[in-house]
Amino acid sequence: MKYRIGAVGESDADGGADGAIAAATRLADAHINPVTGLATDYLNHFNEAIMLLDMVAASPECRDDLRAWRPTDYRGHFQQSGFKARDLAIAAYDTADPVARDMLEALAGTMTTVIEHTRTRLDGETDAGHAAVIVECATAWLRLLVAQAGAVINNQRLAVSDAPPQDAIDRAMKVAG
């Protein structure tokens, strides 16, 4: 079954080419990818967590701000946001490419797990050097995952060269071990 992005907010009763073009234009104007039906604004939620992790690395007293971050799903993000076209973003999500939507949900779940695990590790870490390494590794992974999620949203593929740097992986393994 083909998903119908053009059906979102379609005012053209015949649903013809003009209606599909108008719907695609409306989505693009709202910063929603007309091919996938997804919006990169959702990634701001994860970029906020990355920013909070960076702040914790520089100022450990910011840990309460990191503790206050809460996971949210795509619909929840837009329901809570001031995104201008939030209703359109939610409607587009409901009719979005199911493969892209599933991939985005899987990436969001992974990002949430990384953030929550990192937050837990930081709560028990008293050594500033170890905390910095934990943050560095987590933010490296999160930035990669955000980039992958952005590629899914924008109907693009990442190159193999976008893999995480080996030195970050090596440091993560030393901290974990």
List the helices and strands and how they pair.
Layout: H1 17-29, H2 43-58, H3 63-68, H4 74-80, H5 86-94, H6 98-123, H7 128-153, H8 166-176
Helix pairs in contact: 2-6, 2-7, 4-5, 6-7, 7-8
Unreliable residue stretches = 9-13, 159-163
Percent of residues in beta strands: under 5%
Regarding quaternary structure, how should these chains be classified? single chain
Q: How would you state the average pLDDT, rounded? A: 84
What share of residues is helical?
55-70%
DSSP summary: helix tally? 8
How many strands in all?
0
Biggest beta sheet summary: none
- Could you say how many structural domains there are in total? 1
Please identify the structural class as seen in this structure. Answer: mainly alpha
Shape: elongated
N-to-C terminal Cα separation, in Å? 47 Å
Radius of gyration: 19 Å
Order of helices and strands: HHHHHHHH
Describe what this molecule looks like in 3D:
The protein is mainly α and 177 residues long. The model is unreliable at 9-13 and 159-163 (pLDDT under 50). Helices cover 64% and strands 0% of the residues. It has one domain. The chain contains eight helices and no strands. The longest helix has 26 residues, at 98-123. Helix 2 (43-58) runs parallel beside helix 6 (98-123), helix 4 (74-80) packs antiparallel against helix 5 and helix 7 crosses helix 8. The termini are far apart.
